[in-house]
Structures are given as structure tokens and as C-alpha cells.
Amino acid sequence: MNKHEAIRETHNTVVTIRGNDQSNIVAFDDSGNSVTIDWTKVNNHITSNEYKEKRQAEYPELKEQLDKLYHDINNDTLTTNGEFFKALNSVKIKYPKE
Could you give the CA distance from residue 64 to residue 56 in angstroms, rounded to a whole number? Predict the structure, then answer.
């Protein structure tokens, strides 16, 4: 998650953000008024959601997941021992929710 996304998710009045680095980012509401950014809140939000991005990057592509699911159903192995479950579970274990 980038800082702009985190700012928007933690500061509901922000509609415009300028700048790319914490030292030069400024945010504005819909009236053009400056919004004070709570960087502790933003950084905590980024850290607490980091696992989602890591999981997303490592999950098999959707077509591969569906193929595993199909084969597990077809082979009557749609259980925690099946390939579909093992593929997703290994990523969830590697990047647990904190």
C-alpha cells in the first residue's frame, strides 16, 4: 500500500494529495483546505495491511487456482490435503495477519 492510499483510507476528508515523500506530501479536502496528516496513523495502517500485498503477490494466478480447484473436485481431494488448499494455505502461513 502506498502512502497516498493509506492517507485516503485513514483521513476520510482528503480528496487531493500532492507530493510523493512523507516530507513533502500535502493533503486537501474538497474545499481546498489543508488537512493535517497523522503520520503515525498512516504508517500503522500501512504496516498492519502489509501482509495483504505480500499474499496477493505470491498467490497463484486465478486461472491456476481454478485449475487446482477443478482437479481437486474431480479427484475427490477437495480437502485440506488438496492442491488448491495447500497452494493458498502456504501463502497464508508465510504472511499471517498480525
Answer: 14
Amino acid at 38: D
State pLDDT tens for residues 12-57. 999 999 998 888 999 999 999 999 999 999 999 999 999 999 999 9
The predicted model scores a pTM of 0.68
**What are the grid coordinates assigned to 47, written together?**
504496516
Q: Which three cell numbers stand for residue 34?
A: 489543508
Q: What is the DSSP string of the chain?
A: --HHHHHHHH-TT--EEE-SSTTT-EEE-TTS-EE---HHHHHHHHHHTHHHHHHHHHSPPHHHHHHHHHHHHHTT--STTSHHHHHHHHHHHHS---
DSSP 3-state of 53: helix
